Amino acid sequence: MRFVKVIADKDTDRLLGVHIIGPHASDLIHEAAVAIKAGLKVRDIADTIHAHPTLSEGLMEAAEDVHGEAIHVPKPK
User: Fold this and answer.
1) What is the pTM of this model?
2) Residue 15 · residue 35 · CB < 8 Å
3) CATH number, domain at 57?
4) 42, 66 in Cβ contact below 8 A?
5) How far is Cα 25 from Cα 43, in angstroms, rounded to an integer?
6) Residue of 19, 50, 52, 72 marked catalytic
7) Is 72 among the catalytic positions?
8) What are the residues whose beta carbons fall under 8 Å from the beta carbon of 25, sequence distance 6 or more?
9) Does residue 18 fall inside a structural domain?
10) In terms of residue numbers, what domain contains 27?
C-alpha cells in the first residue's frame, strides 16, 4: 500500500510539496522534486500522461484529487 499527498497553494495551484509513504517512495519522489524545482502547477502533473499500470500513477491521482478529479479515491458523503 502507498500513500501520496500533494500540498499546493490554493490560490496559484503551485506545487509546494509532496508526501509519499510506502514501497518505492524514494523512486517516486523525483518527479515531484523536478516539478517543484520547475515551479509547476498541480494541474501540470495531473495533465501529464503516466503509464498504466505503474506506481507513478499515485502522484497523478493525488494531483487530480486536489481538483476533485481523482477516480481511485473514496468520495466524501
Assistant:
1) 0.87
2) yes
3) 3.30.390.30
4) yes
5) 21
6) 52
7) no
8) 2
9) yes
10) 3-66
